[in-house]
């Protein structure tokens, strides 16, 4: 067993730190893409920006993100360039890439809306909208549409600039 002071252990620790930074950057790029464009960047774009174009490195990063509960990958894998198998994104918290029972929209702007996997995700999206606006209140009039118990009565929750909910 290696002690934490050996060169091999220090190299392994440095490599793990680099992986964590890359994974955080991938998550950040996906979240900002969702906020800006309503969809995540392509895998090619993510691989180019973070891993010099390596889809294999991106696949490893996405699997680490899934293991750490930052993402849920679809069980179906698509073959990409160089024979790399990459599953489609299903959830990258706080966003769901497929329809769910929770929809978040900016009131009065039909072009800005996102699926959330749950209410916690929806509140996370509202928080991101406030952060994205620099706390200027640009998220005033954010509506969260969901159903009680995921199948019962429809409810709409209005978040007023992060100060109150109705």
Overview of the structural elements:
The chain has 166 residues and is of the alpha+beta class. Helix 1 crosses helix 3. The longest helix has 31 residues. The radius of gyration is 19 Å and the shape is elongated. Strand 8 and strand 9 form a beta hairpin. The chain is built from four helices and ten strands, in the order H-H-H-E-E-E-E-E-E-E-H-E-E-E. The strands form three sheets. A five-stranded antiparallel beta sheet has the order 7-6-8-9-10, covered by helices on one side. Helices cover 40% and strands 22% of the residues.
What characteristics describe this protein?
5-stranded antiparallel beta sheet; alpha+beta; 3-stranded antiparallel beta sheet; 10 strands; 166 residues; elongated
List the helices and strands and how they pair.
Layout lengths: L6 H31 L5 H9 L3 H13 L3 E3 L4 E2 L5 E2 L2 E4 L2 E2 L5 E5 L6 E4 L2 H14 L9 E6 L6 E7 L3 E2 L1
Helix pairs in contact: 1-3
Summarize the structure.
Helices cover 40% and strands 22% of the residues. With 166 residues, the chain is an alpha+beta fold. The model has no long low-confidence stretch (mean pLDDT 87).
